[in-house]
UniProtKB/TrEMBL annotation, chain A:
InterPro entries according to UniProt: AAA+_ATPase, ABC_transporter-like_ATP-bd, ABC_transporter-like_CS, CBS_dom, CBS_dom_sf, P-loop_NTPase
The species this protein was found in: Kibdelosporangium persicum
Name this polypeptide is given: L-proline glycine betaine ABC transport system permease protein ProV
Keywords, alphabetical: ATP-binding, CBS domain, Nucleotide-binding, Transport
Residues passing through the membrane, by range: none
Highest taxon, organism lineage: Bacteria
TrEMBL record, chain B:
Annotated compartments: Cell membrane; Membrane
Organism listed in the record: Kibdelosporangium persicum
Taxonomic lineage from the root: Bacteria, Bacillati, Actinomycetota, Actinomycetes, Pseudonocardiales
PROSITE patterns membership: ABC_TM1 (PS50928)
Membrane topology type: Multi-pass membrane protein
The keyword Membrane is annotated on this UniProt entry: yes
Pfam family, one: BPD_transp_1
Residue spans crossing the bilayer: 31-53, 74-100, 156-176, 188-208
Similarity comment text for this entry: Belongs to the binding-protein-dependent transport system permease family.
Annotated CDD domains: TM_PBP2
Keywords annotated in UniProt: Membrane, Transmembrane, Transmembrane helix, Transport
Matching InterPro entries: ABC_transp_perm/SBD, MetI-like, MetI-like_sf
Name the record gives this protein: Binding-protein-dependent transport systems inner membrane component
Amino acid sequence: MIEFRDVTKQYPDGTVAVDKLNLTVEAGTITVFVGPSGCGKTTSLRMVNRMIEATSGTILIDGKDIRDSEPALLRRGMGYVIQQAGLFPHRTVLDNVATVPLLSGWDKRKARARAAELLETVGLPAEMGRRYPVQLSGGQQQRVGVARALAADPPILLMDEPFSAVDPVVREDLQNELLRLQGELDKTIVFVTHDIDEAVRIGEKVAVFRKGGVLAQYGTPADVLRYPADEFVAGFVGRDRGYRGLSFLESSGISVDRVETAKLGKPRAETVADWVLVLDSDGHPCGWLPPGTSVDGSLTREPLVAGGSLYTTGTSLRGALDAALSSPASRGVVVDEDGKYVGVITARQVLDLIEGHPQAVSKT
Amino acid sequence: MNSFGNAFAWLFAPEQWSGPSGIPARVLEHLGYTALAVLLGLVIALPIGMVIGHSGKGGFLVGAVNALRAIPELGLLILLVLLMGIGLLPVTLALVVLAIPPLLAGTYSGIRNVDRSVVDAARGMGMKEGRILMRVELPNALPLILGGLRAATLQVLATATIAAYVSLGGLGRFVIDGLYLRDFAQTLGGTIVIAVVALALEGLLILLQRLVVSRGLRRNPTRRRDRTVRPVEIAVETA
């Protein structure tokens, strides 16, 4: 648990970077500090490992004042991941990952074995350990950065815009990977970003900062999206926050329709009148047969139109709306957890369901 | 062409290759002056450059020291000899003054140019300042430091010729004696030897650079056996 108590950072020129911050980061959660540039989110993060010293106030870790620990030792107990990864160019990937264990006095062999293990944990082949950072892509470097931060198994992870410098596709991979890792490792993670989408995606708690280092709102992503504390937060989370908020609505009690289906490989001889959903022998959707298609003989994948995104029952309504809107047949395909066809759903049905939810769309 | 012919005749005459005033002995003396001055220069410039580079404070000193390059070397040597008398000390001091600016500039800019995010990460992981300097900044600064070392060495080696001007040895003996005796074959021959020694030393330093600089800092650190996993690179190389 990390507690900020009346923490203020003022620079000698009078600029206040963080203004009387009071906030508790729960153990074992991902807490995201988000806000526009100059809002003090990075400063707040860097005060936790004393890369920046607070002007006044106290930061406690599990009840212990961080000023009682020597900075270097304090930092070895916290993983630190930064935007540019900051890998040591002159060391191999493996030795980069082994940095903190070596600093903490592990013997070389043990530290390297641990490093190799961690490369696999973050989804990199162990052979990559022999390479140098310059030989890796940006996304791979960031993974190595995460592995390096995890090497000594610290309870706390500080991540300063770790995924901001990679392209969106890779960023999403890295976010998923982080969520997967957190599922296994259960760290206390403070994550800084300027991207509200990233914040609500990975945060269990979101702290929205405004210019001048003031905490504007602290709560779950759903609360921040549904009930912005003020105009600033409402503006910052953006106009489509209602749509984002759907991510947090679960589809309990969604009712699905049936649609005509056909099995792949089965012989058929007809011209179809309406969209027909084609399933494979295991019941997984393969695509749609458009109206007016003539099939003579066994049904192949060739005439199929690719389906939209699939919606898995029990997940958020945002996925249901996505499925309905992206389907060529205007009906979203609903599947169960094994990916087997359950039914179809229209955007209208999803919207009716949303309107039935009292907190779904907040006032502007 | 004729003068070169004479110079080579002088060079290959057996009497130049033995004794205390033969070419091998003079080469050793010359390398001795050079090594002494460059090492002293390193002892002074390396720590100062590292501290200034690491702390970011006192960068003006690098510029100020650079101004030393403008001092006429022969004038400085004569001044020092007048102050201290003839000997190795004034010669070495004059050469050290020459060695320091490139060494200091190389070290300072080498340390300064290490990616700040790398240093930030090192500190954030719990490295102490001394360790950051020695284990992170220094290895990454090596290419520029060694660049400074090469520049300093070559300049000192070329200028060590003036040792002979104040009655010391070295390859300058041939050049200066040749001038006095109007034996231009000897002057040119000595000059050729200096050039050859300079080239050889440069080659050695490049080799040293290959040995001590991490492969991760080269433009293309790919090992031969890693090539198989980088087909794009092979395609580019064979194209």
